[in-house]
């Protein structure tokens, strides 16, 4: 069990974050499906961004150079490109940098 590639705590954390993200999306739909509250709708539209910030913010305090560089690349990509491109750059750069900068990670 200790040689598993997937850390059970990380897997549970990712699963819970996905569930929370899904619940925020579906609850907005259920609450507003027949109502017109423009201000509340705007707040619900930016909630997933808040969830993403909560995922990204800990990277800046870990002290890992590879994660810090990947976060900077992701932010720069997000300023110019769509969410999908940003996601691909973020995940790709984190994986590549963690592979090539293993001494800095630990």
From TrEMBL:
It comes from Commensalibacter nepenthis. The chain crosses the membrane at residues 12-32, 44-62, 68-97. Keywords: Membrane, Transmembrane, Transmembrane helix. This is AzlD family protein. InterPro entries: Brnchd-chn_aa_trnsp_AzlD.
């Amino acid at each position: 069990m200790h040689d598993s590639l997937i850390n059970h705590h990380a897997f549970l954390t990712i699963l819970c974050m996905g569930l929370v993200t899904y619940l925020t999306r579906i609850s907005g739909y259920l609450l507003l499906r027949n109502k017109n509250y423009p201000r509340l709708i705007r707040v619900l539209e930016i909630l997933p961004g808040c969830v993403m910030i909560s995922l990204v913010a800990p990277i800046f305090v870990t002290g890992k150079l590879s994660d810090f560089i990947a976060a900077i690349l992701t932010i720069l990509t997000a300023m110019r490109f769509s969410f999908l491109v940003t996601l691909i750059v973020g995940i790709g750069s984190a994986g590549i940098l963690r592979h090539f900068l293993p001494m800095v990670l630990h």
